[in-house]
Design a protein that fits this description.
Elements (H helix, E strand, L loop, with lengths): L8 H11 L19 E4 L2 E4 L5 H4 L9 E2 L6 E3 L2 E2 L2 H9 L21 H5 L12 H5 L2 H4 L6 H11 L11 H4 L13 H5 L6 H18 L7 H18 L1
Antiparallel strand pairs: 1-2, 1-3, 4-5
Helix pairs in contact: 3-7, 7-10
Organism: Salinispira pacifica
Cofactor: [3Fe-4S] cluster; [4Fe-4S] cluster; [2Fe-2S] cluster
Pathway: Carbohydrate metabolism; tricarboxylic acid cycle; fumarate from succinate (bacterial route): step 1/1
Length: 241
């Protein structure tokens, strides 16, 4: 097909559906990088079709742009994946406001400083496109890992001074499938279309859990983290040898 360098990959996909194959299955909604619906793997890297220009993935005439559905989610049809498990893990972290003040009757507002608001600014940018979930290599070997997107959603509320924060979410975050399997591969951060420092937020959450447990004299359930780190170090040693 003929496309201009500044056309979006999404434009090309829509053209295929309209003029070549009406059965092509894919998702899209806003087409402006806000809804996250059209996330897919474009030439080997996760991204949004609506934010990827043809010139970003093809340099000349005759180049082939390969599109495949996201990883770690069952393919429903063509470029569409079943996001049931992804959103279940998202719901498991209680991605909603749990007031720190039990009785808010009569309270006009809960003021925050600029610094307190900035503390959870990054995770509010998440559009749940699941690009990070697809790119995470941990899920290749540990499919029950809650995944980077869910942890980012938890961080949005854990870091909110008006929310009860960490405690109501500990049963999910501080578990073998919670934050600890993360190996700091940074793949999630690399593909995030909103440039959220996902790996940083995961590590921050790990530190918050450790501080919470230490303050209460409780044991730290980081077996998953230790095992992952040992495996990563072993792999690095074997590669260097």
């Amino acid at each position: 097909m003929e496309v201009n360098p500044t056309d979006r990959v999404l434009d090309a996909i829509i053209d295929v559906k309209r003029n070549q194959d009406g059965s092509l299955g894919f998702r899209r909604s806003c087409a402006h990088g806000v809804c996250g619906s059209d996330a897919m793997i474009i030439n080997g890297k996760e991204g949004l079709a609506c934010k990827t220009l043809v010139q970003d993935v093809a340099s000349g005439d005759g180049d082939v742009v390969k599109l495949i559905p996201l990883n770690h989610q069952a393919v429903q049809r063509d470029l569409m994946v079943d996001q049931t498990d992804f959103f279940k893990k998202y719901r498991d972290v209680k991605p909603f406001f749990i007031p720190a003040v039990d009785d808010l009757q009569g309270e006009a507002e809960q003021p925050q400083t600029v610094e307190e608001r900035d503390a959870f600014d990054d995770p509010t940018k998440c559009i749940l496109c699941s690009a990070c979930y697809s790119a995470c290599p941990v899920l290749d070997k540990k499919p029950d890992f809650i995944g980077p997107a869910a942890i980012v959603q938890a961080a949005r509320f854990v870091n909110d001074s008006r929310d009860k924060g960490l405690e109501p979410r500990l049963s999910v975050l501080d578990s073998p499938d919670g934050v600890w399997p993360c190996e700091n591969n940074f793949k999630c951060t690399e593909v995030c279309p909103r440039e959220i420092p996902i790996t940083k937020l995961i590590n921050q959450t790990k530190r918050q859990i450790k501080a919470y447990r230490k303050e209460r004299g409780e044991s730290i359930n980081d077996d998953g983290q230790d095992a992952a780190q040992k495996a990563a170090r072993k792999a690095a040693r074997e590669k260097s040898n």
